[in-house]
Amino acid sequence: MKEIVQEINDIRRQWGKKLLILGHHYQRPSVLCHADELGDSLELSRKAASHSEAERIVFCGVKFMAESADILTNRNQTVYMPDISAGCPMANMADADEMTESWKMLESHGGEWLPVVYVNSSAEIKACCGKWGGSTCTSSNASKVFKWVFAQGKKVFFLPDEHLGINTAYDMGIPDNEVLLYDPGKQNGGIRTEELARAKVIVWKGFCLVHVAFKPEHVIEARKKFPDAKIIVHPETPREVVRMCDAHGSTSQIIKYVEAAAAGSTIIVGTELNLVDRLAAEQKCRVTVKALSSSVCANMAKTNANNLLALLKEWPARNEVHVPESVAVDARKSLTTMLNL
Ligand code: 13P
Ligand code: SF4
Question: Which of 7, 82, 222, 266 could form a disulfide with 229, with the two C-beta atoms 3.0–4.6 Å apart?
Answer without folding.
Answer: 266
